[in-house]
UniProtKB/TrEMBL annotation:
The keyword RNA-binding does not apply. This is NADH-quinone oxidoreductase subunit A. It comes from the Bacteria. The chain crosses the membrane at residues 12-34, 65-86, 92-115. The lineage of its organism: Bacteria, Pseudomonadati, Nitrospirota, Nitrospiria, Nitrospirales. Gene3D superfamilies: NADH:ubiquinone/plastoquinone oxidoreductase, chain 3 (1.20.58.1610).
Length: 123
């Protein structure tokens, strides 16, 4: 059993992996050789642009930012559900329409609640 050769189906996969690794390594080496390397003091600071640090990076964001981000995710997921529904709409008929209307109504109620709580007011 130890003398069996690996199946020939794996040879193209191993060849592809080898070519991909070689391409990546050659690209990195050529880039290191060709690019100019002239560092100066301002470029070596943690902010490479050379801009001076004017405040601490750990600032508190208002809760409104997180609510808007969550609303974006919710409506993004809504679109993920709407596309397959639209594709099979002819097959599912009235039941599918009513279910999607209920789904959108729940999202609209959530949007209205966020609006009334003041999370969506723009300053």
């Amino acid at each position: 059993m130890a003398t069996e050769a690996p199946p020939l189906n794996y040879v193209p996969i191993l060849l592809f992996i080898g070519i991909a690794l070689a391409f990546g390594l050659v690209s990195l080496l050529v880039g290191k050789i060709v690019r100019p390397h002239r560092p100066y003091r301002a470029k070596l600071v943690p902010y490479e642009s050379g801009s001076p640090l004017f405040q601490d990076a750990r600032v508190q964001f208002p809760i409104r930012y997180y609510i808007i981000a969550m609303l974006f995710v919710v409506f993004d997921i809504e679109v993920v559900f709407l596309f397959p529904w639209a594709v099979v709409f002819q097959k599912i008929g009235l039941v599918g329409l009513l279910e999607m209307m209920l789904f959108i109504a729940i999202l609209v109620v959530g949007f209205w609640y966020a609006w009334k709580k003041g999370a969506l007011e723009w300053d």
